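Re: weekly structure request thread

Next one in the queue (532 aa):
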Amino acid sequence: LPMSGVGDILKAVGEFGLFQKWLVLLTLFPCLSVAFHQFCQLFMVPHVAHHCDTSWIRAVGPNLTEEEQLNLTLPRDADGAYEQCSMYSPVDWDLISIMTYGLNATEKCSSGWVYPSAQPPSLLTEFDLVCDRKDLNAISQSIYMVGLFLGAMIFGPLSDRIGRRPVILISVLLQGVFGVGTAFVPHFYVYMAFRCVVGASVSGITMTILALATEWVGVSSRPKAVLISHCCFAIGQMILAGLSYGIRNWRLLEIAGSAPIFALFFYIWVLPESARWLVTKGRIEEAKKVLQKAASINKRTIPPRLLEQPWVSLAWFHSLAFCILKLKPETQTKSGSTLDLFRKKHLRKVTLIMSCTWFVNSFVYYGLSLNVTNFGLDIYLTQLAFGAVEIPARVGCIFTLQWFGRKKTQAVLLLLSGLVCLIITGIPEDQPMATTVLAIIGKFTASASFSTSYVYSAELFPTVIRQTGVGLCSMSARVAAIIAPLIHLLGQYHRAIPMAIFGSAPVVGGLLCVLLPETRGTDLVDDTEGGR
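Done, posted below.
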């Protein structure tokens, strides 16, 4: 089949007609649930006053008031408040002896904790995520990020093997079952295991749905499609703020955020398979049908003579793959390997610096996003602002890339993200407004920088190893997301340490970007020989 014939088929179908717009719309619904699962735990572990359960003294003093009981059984800290994580050791004395001589020996809470009775059920109160167990909160966030990492490794190759459509449906089912199931877990370790599976399903949905849209939408409209999905993710963060404000019971919140995904089971009837994937697997008749359906929805007609061409030609497979990607190879290029990323000097530099860029970008993004409860202002308003600020950040990124180029935009946005975090370390604790405003600015620059990284990486890597290069960068970003929640644990030694680390990393990354070549207005490199 001649090249012009395949081009005519795709031209006849339409590059961004009603069919593609409908497909992009279908990709938006999962983005809302992804935003929920990414950040919902922040609202399930509120700061709650607590103290050791010292009901042992009731055996000898059943008529003690609550204040008398606490005064006899709990030591006080330097500020005169009751200690939250220690108690006086129980003794076998009578009440008069205890009141006369007092208790001196202390120990950690041995019988659990007591929380305010009016407090709605939260992860913190149900699973005692306080004192020695408070680190489990950050660890569980990291476990969720591990799920994202594993999902990328499992569902990426699986979608290449069994197709985009089945992987999306499997991921939706997993997210629904384990998302709702999380609301009924009896132990925190079971909660972490379920969250890990939900994280894997989130990766399966986001990666595969993006691949499906990319393989149907024409090249000129792809940035628009990706941008719309990013903005929908931001809207999902804003919806989370409202949802968590209205539903304070963590189990009900989990159900409210997870159950709607089951509505997406209508995808079984409406979600198309990727024509490109069908062709690469030799399923030509199915590819014909789905292309004809796309053409009919777009109110276009594929001339019958084009569909009567010898579709089984291997040359046609090669041509269609490139045509859908809107890349017209003049000559056959030698395929690249992962080793080429490190074997050739110019590619090694690009790979290492872009992997570092994605790492620090993800690091500062999640460093700020997962710290929303510690900036001092109302966490629901802060989350709303954090979500809202991403929309102008993503949209504005398009214009800055055109005006200032890729390299300057990437470097400046990373430097600003880092500097904002470093400034936050110097803001006193009694200035929550200043801290929150700076954090919102940091979230803005980190979000814009993330969008820049997607564009810049795709342009820096040669065609033959573009997916491999971007995949490696994405993997480094996921590693950063796993580490970010654990960095917050260092705040127990000094509150400024986490922000100092989150600020230093992107500054280093921004400075390294100066060593990269500019790609604005240049043609994409097809093979590994073309160094910039």
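The chain has three domains: 1-48+118-323, 51-114, 336-531. Residues 1-7, 311-335 have pLDDT under 50 and may be disordered.
Next request, please.
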